[in-house]
Amino acid sequence: MTTLTAAPVTPHTAVLTSGRLPKWAPWALLGGSFVISAAVFGVAAAGADLADFNIAGTVIVGILLYMVIITVISSIVESRRKAVDRLMTALVATAFLIALLPLISLLWTVVANGIERFDAEFFSYSMRNVIGDGGGIVHAIWGTVLITLTATVISVPIGLMTSIYLVEYGRGKLAKGITFFVDVMTGIPSIVAGLFIYAVFAVLIGPGISMGFMGALALAVLMTPVVVRGSEELLKIVPNELREASYALGVPKWLTILKVVLPTSIAGITTSIMLAISRVIGETAPLLLTAGFTQSMNTNIFDGQMMTLPVFAYNQYMNQGTNPDAAVARAWAAALTLILIVMVLNLLARLIAKLFAPKMSGR
Length: 363
Prior knowledge:
mainly alpha, MetI-like fold, 69% helix, phosphate transport, Phosphate_PstA
């Protein structure tokens, strides 16, 4: 009897994974490109001071050299399609880094110049009776917080209810008219909002008046269209199936909006509100016209002028007094404080959105 023996199976490499560069290869090629570029510029700058070394040129040439090398090697080892993909990836990553450069430069400049005055006195005292050194921004911090909070309390309900009307109820000419005016308000210069509020109060009370509440109204005019636009887009992407399921259970429309639509989009709405706050918290021109400026503490938004952080930074830079270095240092420190406040508010918004977002059942 003849015994049949199975032929040995020769392992084959999968087609989709054959001819691939190792994961470390692109990083090694990138590092090698920078080394070659640095060597070229180092030879060109030989005999000169270290400060004459062209760092920007080294980076640019290194990136261009990397794109050429990775494209050529990938086309040889892998395929032409993969080489094009790696080239496009390098181009997109380079464009992203170029877009980040102004932001990184701005943050570095503000931190480097503003950290000098980050001390207990700066956050404990106002500028009352301060001419040269010393002083602080406690009055400006209180003014910024109170005015921005008041503007948020005014604009968020109006903006949110407007977006609910446009998405859930609005039809016909009225909805189109509201949408048109919201688009117009989105593009108005901030100084126009300040002039509008100042003109209204000048007619009602009298010219020359300034108070924190006027500044809050000016900021609310700028915040409202941003809240409307952001909330409207987020309410539109809520699936209609959720609304229909609620209606099928006999839930009225207003309760469906309150219990289903808004909780579903609360995370995005919170983000849009924070974008609106970030849009107005650094405004200077409308607050100069409406809230004015003062060197003393004032926590009553309905009585007297109030100082805010952007106006404080502007005032310190434009009116440097007897000690220009101290005034400029205070201006940079105020700018850094404003950036930190915006960052804290964004973190709080993320936390609130995470806490109140609808909980999904685990799989």
